[in-house]
Specification:
By secondary structure, the protein is of the alpha/beta class. The chain has one domain. It has 14 helices and nine strands. The strands form two sheets. It has a seven-stranded mixed β-sheet, sandwiched between helices.
Length: 329
């Protein structure tokens, strides 16, 4: 299986721009959902955080236990990731994960109605990690940051953008185009230039050449034709190679990073993987092997961080879609 970067699947901006001309942009249900989300964000921005957290705990519990929103897929993923865990323990994690998603989503929506510096002041790097990021930026080759859907990955991107500019975040279009536009406005307020996955290569190159950073959230299931099958929680998962490919081809530092919610604040950490991983390879190792080793290192790093608190991970996407055992279900 090749290591073609995942943004190479579409060759022009025309394909994306044509979406805005379709009827999907004008569906009443999508627009009403968007208006509701805007209203919730406005209310959440003025309510005390403890009140919002208590409401989200109540709403999340009802959604998971009564309405069963996302429950089946969440529990199926948790069973695959933690086969030795009791069903009751998996239900507790699944419920907590949905509550966490609601809490961090409201924190993202708050960005539209509060000052950027006030929002980002709640995202703290440990001194060693921040020094590592700044040192990587000083090398003058740009930096490739890669993360997963853990805790508040959007605010993490905003905090990383304060360490070096310009910053580009590669994103996937949401099914609701109004919400997708709203989220991109949040990203821009965080000083992040959003670039649509599939046509982002020019924006990434521009950022790296300007000694900026490219931010990837690369833990969703990749097309098996372009991804690599790499074990994630002991199960093979098709994994995006784009972040590692950019780091290898442009000799840019490759840093894995994540953030964890601790009460009303977020603690961010990062680890540089390229120096550690590529140093163990022979000098004549080809590009494909380097990309594989970096991608494997990121997946392993992400799994270890998720295991410290699985309730902050997004278990609502089909991570093992191409695993033969999952395909039988």
């Amino acid at each position: 299986m090749g290591t073609r970067s995942y943004w190479a699947e579409e060759s022009s901006r025309d394909k994306f721009e044509s979406m805005s001309e379709t009827g999907s942009w004008h569906k009443p249900r999508q627009f009403l959902t968007y208006l509701f989300v805007r209203l919730v964000g406005m209310v959440a921005s003025v309510l005390p955080r403890p009140v919002v957290a208590a409401l989200m705990k109540l709403i999340g519990s009802i959604a998971f236990d009564v309405l069963r929103i996302g429950r089946r897929l969440t529990l199926m993923n948790l069973e695959d990731a933690f086969p030795d865990m009791t069903p009751a323990a998996r239900r507790r994690i699944g419920r907590a994960a949905l509550i966490n998603l609601l809490v961090v989503s409201l924190d993202i929506l708050r960005v539209r109605y509060q000052r950027r510096d006030k929002v980002l002041a709640r995202v703290e790097f440990d001194p060693e990690s921040e020094a590592l990021c700044r040192q990587a930026m000083q090398e003058g080759k740009g930096v490739v940051y890669v993360s997963g859907h853990y805790s508040n990955w959007e605010l993490l991107g905003g905090r990383l953008a304060t360490l070096g500019s310009p910053a580009v975040a590669i994103y996937q279009e949401l099914k609701n185009p109004f919400l997708s536009r709203e989220l991109n406005l949040v990203r821009k307020k965080l000083n992040i230039r959003p670039a649509l996955r599939g046509i982002a290569v020019k924006e990434v190159l521009k950022a790296l050449k300007a000694k900026g950073s490219a931010l990837f959230v690369a833990d969703q299931e990749a097309d098996p034709e372009s991804g690599l099958m790499i074990d994630f929680f002991g199960k093979p998962a098709s994994t995006f190679t784009g972040p590692a490919a950019m780091a290898v081809r442009f000799e840019a530092p490759f840093l894995a990073t994540t953030v964890r919610r601790v009460r009303n604040r977020y603690q961010a950490v990062c680890e540089r993987l390229d120096l550690k991983v590529l140093a163990d390879l022979p000098a004549d190792a080809d590009e494909e092997l380097r990309i594989r080793r970096l991608t494997e290192a990121f997946v392993d790093w992400l799994e270890r961080n998720i295991r410290t608190d699985p309730s902050q991970y997004l278990w609502l996407h089909r991570r093992w879609e191409w695993w033969p055992e999952r395909m039988k279900r």
